[in-house]
Each structure stands twice: as structure tokens, then as C-alpha cells.
User: Fold Porphobilinogen deaminase from Fibrivirga algicola.
Amino acid sequence: MHIRIGTRSSRLALWQAEYIQQLLQAADVTSELVLIETKGDQILDRSLAKIGSKGLFTQELEDQLRSGTIDIAVHSAKDLQSSLPADLSIIAFTERERVNDVLVSRDGSLSLTSGQAFTIGTSSTRRVAMLRHYCPHIKVVDMRGNLQTRLRKLDDGHCDALLLAYAGVHRMHYDDLIAEHLPISDFTPAVGQGSVAIEAADTLPLDKLAQVRSLTNHEPTEACLKAERAFLRRLEGGCSIPVFALATWAGEEISLTGGLISLDGADILRETFVGPPAQAEQLGHDLAEALLARGGDEILQSIREAL
Ligand SMILES: NCc1[nH]cc(CCC(=O)O)c1CC(=O)O
Assistant:
């Protein structure tokens, strides 16, 4: 069997695609990478929240899934919209890496908890809002681009540190630059953070679908991400909305913590629900409903007006 894998060409995207290739090789499935440029790779001068993130890093890959020039598309799970078009679906989620965010700097003594004042570069509305909430002494500057671009801006003095997902930093071998691991209790990660998702069109032959899924899907991660993504979907959030959620599989149950935060960091709502893995999506939906009823609808409204 031979699988054509569509991927963006950033170093992190290539790492993810090659990781999938390795998993496929275990059963003698050969594969090739098809590099695809997306709009998100081209537009580098505007903030993601302003462009409107729907499909920004996925549209061109999805076009090729439909035309059949690729069999599967590989994404960071957290970059995938919460609702996919009806003819496409996620057929696998890989086992999650550590999910937390990290402070990255050339100065290893920097810490967010120490009260030191310094400047952090990030373009994530979730991270900006959480910094305003938990670390009001920190100055935030907007910073887009892939990891390598951001590190160059860090070295050029645009900021003292970056706030990034551990998963990407580790996969790019920048562990030496980690000044601090942030606690998930405060800096709850974005939905899907740390997992690689495989997307396919409903025209993919069933034998390919079954083989790819059996070699790459991690069931506990899949159940957790289903809960998180159902939560995000109910809030109609893309990755530019400061919504966060983390599900963990413990014993016989899934524990889902999710919330949302106003852009200025003033209002934050966070709640944990527990339920059976077989009803992961219901759990995400119910948690979202509960937060909407507790003032989340007003926070969302203010976010939408501001973005
Ligand atoms: N939004 C960009 C993005 N998409 C996935 C990762 C990191 C790896 C992952 O969580 O899958 C990153 C960078 C970051 O947020 O630091």
C-alpha cells in the first residue's frame, strides 16, 4: 500500500508528516510527502485574529484531499477548525506530547511567577489574555511567523521571551531554550495542543483508511480530543478565539477542563466536567452549555465584537 501525505512545508509541519511516515512504515506502508503552501503561510504581516482564521492553514490541503492528489493531510490538531466540511473527517489523532506551554528565552533565569517585568512575543489571543490575567506586569508584543521566524525576532531583540507549546519547541529540538514550564492549571492549553491529526476525504478507499487509522490513531487521545473539540465547536471558536480546554483520561473516565477568557484578561471562566469516554462529545457540549449559561455568552459576544 502507498499513501500520499499532504503537508505544509514549515519545519514543524514536516516533522509531523515524517512522524506519520514512520508510523506507517511499521507495517510496510510506503508513503511520500506532497508539500502544499496555504494562505496562512503566505500572509505574514497581519495578525491571525484579523485575517479570520477559518481554513487559513487547511484550505489548500482540503482541496487536494477532494481531488485525490493526496490520500491524507497531516495537521497540528490544534490548528484544525472545530467543524470540518461534511465530506472530510479526521481519521486519526496521534498520542499526545506533553500539553503545556513553555516560556522560551536566551535568558534561562526568566520566570513568569517571579514578578520580574519583561516582554513576551506571542500572537495567540489565548496567551495574550492569560498573560494579562495572571501576569499583568508582563508586556506583550504581537509576533507571528513559524518557530524559526519567532526565534530570530527574539534574537533581534523584539522581545525577551516567547510563549509557545512545549510540543513544538521539543519537536524542533529547542529544549535548551526553555526557561520555564507553565502550569496547565492557569495556562490551560489550546484545544488539541500536542497531538497530530490526520484528515481524509470520504472518498478515501476504506482499506487505506483502516490501515492508516490502525497504525496512527491513539484511542485515549482521540477520546480526549473529541471532548475538547466538541467543547470548542459549541462555542463556535476557531483557533483565534481565547477558548481553552484540556481533557485527560483517568481510570474509566474523561476529565475535561475548559474555559474562556475575555481579550483583556479581566473575565475568565473555567470549569471541569467528568464523564465516560464513550460520551466524550456530549461532555464537551455540556461543559460549553454550562459556561455559556454562567456568563460565557457575554464574554464570547465581547470577543467577537473586538476581533
Ligand atoms: N498555532 C501554531 C502551532 N500549531 C501547533 C503548535 C505547536 C505544536 C502543537 O501543539 O501541536 C504551534 C506553535 C505554538 O503554539 O507554540
